Amino acid sequence: MPSPSRAAVAGSEFDAFLYSSIAEEENGMLLTVLSALARLDVDPWEEAARLTSLPREKATQTLTSMIAALPNSPSARRESAAIATRLIALLPRRVTSGISPPATGVAAAVGISTHSIKRYIVMYLIFMLFILASHWLQQAAAPASPPAATNVILAPTPVPAPSPTAASTPAAATSSAR
Fold first, then answer.
1. Closest CA to 166 of 158, 174, 178
2. Cα-only R_g, the chain
3. Which of 41, 117, 129, 145 is surrounded by the most beta carbons within 10 Å?
4. What local confidence, expressed as pLDDT, does residue 7 receive?
5. Three-state secondary structure of 38-57
6. pLDDT value of position 60
């Protein structure tokens, strides 16, 4: 019998199948799939998962042989094929395409699907492109500044001061020039 934690992990996806009646026993009690699988010393949740993974015809054949092998259930053995067909229809359908592989590594440890991780990466890339585009637009809208080499401030060149003697006597400057 599975531990309570295993049954809780398995969830209720197999409940309709496992708790369905196979037949009424001689004592008037209903024989469920869960009881039948336990009598056959098979883990009911593992077997339900295994049957779900099989093609419908193969799962029906497997369950038919299991029902036929039940001890003390002659009515179930006679109608085992019909019962198995009815019960297999209660298993969750398995999807053959469009399923991403199970998450592994860190994603599985924290319960994040691979699809979610891909979505976050795409959103991050779009965000980064937005930031780069806004930066580029800011640069394009800013007034063009001259190159850094032209921003050098030159020191003023000293202008020679006139001599005091030449400035005081303009006639002397004129006469010496003659």
1. 174
2. 45
3. 117
4. 47
5. HHCCCCHHHHHHHHHHCCHH
6. 92
- How far, in Å, CA of 44 to CA of 40, rounded? 10
Comparing 120 with 99, which gets the higher pLDDT? 120
DSSP 8-state symbol, 150: G
Read off the pTM: 0.48
Length of the chain: 178
Cα dihedral 56, 58, 62, 64 sign: positive
Closest CA to 10 of 57, 54, 52, 60: 52
How confident is the model over 7-62, as pLDDT tens digits? 444 557 888 989 998 888 878 888 899 988 988 899 999 999 999 999 999 999 99
Sign of CA dihedral 123, 124, 125, 131: positive
